[in-house]
Amino acid sequence: MNVKLLPLDENFTSAIVLGNLIENLEYAYGDQLSITGSKVVQAGDYRATALYYSINNDDEVTHQILYVFFQNNIGYVFTATYTDLNDITESREIFDTVISTFEINRLSINTNNEHYVEFDSFFEYDVTLTDKIYSNIQVENQFRFRGTLDSKDKAVGFYLSVTKDSDRTDYYVPIVSGAFDATIYTPFGLGKHNIRVFLDETGELESALDVIDTLESESTLSLDNFIDFALLGNLNVNTSKPLMHFSVINISSDPIKNLLPSEFIDFDRPEIYALTTRLTYNLTSEYAKARAIYEWIYENYTLTDKTFEGGFLSLYELIETTSANEVEICMLYAGLLRANDIQARIVRGSFEENSDYWVETYINGKWLVADIAQDITERGEDGSYRFNLSRSSHYSNYLSTEILPF
């Protein structure tokens, strides 16, 4: 189901929005379009118009439903698709059930209290931004941070902190020959994200992977100890050189944090995309794709001992080998899922002096537990997998659980 958000002015009404959408369909498909009916659908406190239509494309007919909500001068448009291979009545009932869960997380922004601030270092280094940035600029999950500066010999990069409520993610943007260019994601869903930009003059920012390098010469650590050390390796930033403070309004309601490449789950390589596509090319549902990737890892990998020496393998290195430790197996599975545009995260469950690690994937509106590492360890003879376990039951096995910021 495809979702679009349409910020509109006060001159629009729900009837005008629907009329314009119909005109767009007629323009796009012409004689191929056949509108078959409409009705009003109730979704909680909101009412939507459901428009039914078909598109006749040579030998194939595609049926679609356009659900249109209109609230506070914002149009919410959901498009559902099915074919003649599906039962029409059943398909419509399924989509009506999904749309009945619709809720609006209202934004409350007082623009008078919002500020775009450029600090002294912005002018000292003569920073010029290529793309206009201002407070409360509307973005859709990302914005471009690029430009130039004259004092290129003094500065080596920028550190950006993106926060929303208690959520936070960090970025480092290097300066190369006086220029910088990076895509900054606003991954925490609908609403205001606060951006803080600081200048790095030393090039000595320490990341989690830097911590890994320093631990390679230390005595052997348990995997749990190593993860604890690595999580302490956040960027060590000198906040005495602030460059900019501003906020952006993310108009996408989709949290994308668990879809992005990260320092530990860096799947953004053609080899990774090629593998995950090969494993799932003939599958249509996210559930089937997640299961297929799970089974491939289960059949092709063995688990090494938890005793940890050296750094983690990268995802590229992991697809070139057949053995990995518990966290690396989870990194591999989460990376292949994210490369397939399926949300995935790694969770640690602790009990007494030990811990287990597993992957959770977001499918059909809920997080599913996939205990791939434990499954490889046990190699159950009954042919069953620890995929789609009961989350509440699984969590009850541990004294505490935490989502790792991978």
Note the overall shape. Answer: globular
Q: How many strand segments? A: 23
CATH architecture of the largest domain: Roll
Q: Provide the number of structural domains.
A: 3
CATH topology term of the largest domain: C8orf32 fold
**Cα-based radius of gyration, to the nearest Å:** 25 Å
Question: Percent helix among the residues?
Answer: 25-40%
Distance between the termini: 28 Å
**Which stretches of 5+ consecutive residues score pLDDT under 50?**
106-113, 205-209, 215-219
Description:
- The protein is of the alpha+beta class.
- It folds into three domains: 2-99, Protein Transport Mog1p, Chain A; 111-202 and 238-250, Immunoglobulins (Immunoglobulin-like), CATH 2.60.40; 257-403, Roll (C8orf32 fold), CATH 3.10.620.30.
- The protein contains eleven helices and 23 strands.
- α6 crosses α9 (326-339).
Short description:
The chain has 406 residues and is an alpha+beta fold. It folds into 3 domains: 2-99, Mog1/PsbP, alpha/beta/alpha sandwich (Protein Transport Mog1p, Chain A); 111-202 and 238-250, Immunoglobulins (Immunoglobulin-like); 257-403, C8orf32 fold (Roll), CATH 3.10.620.30. It is built from 11 helices and 23 strands.
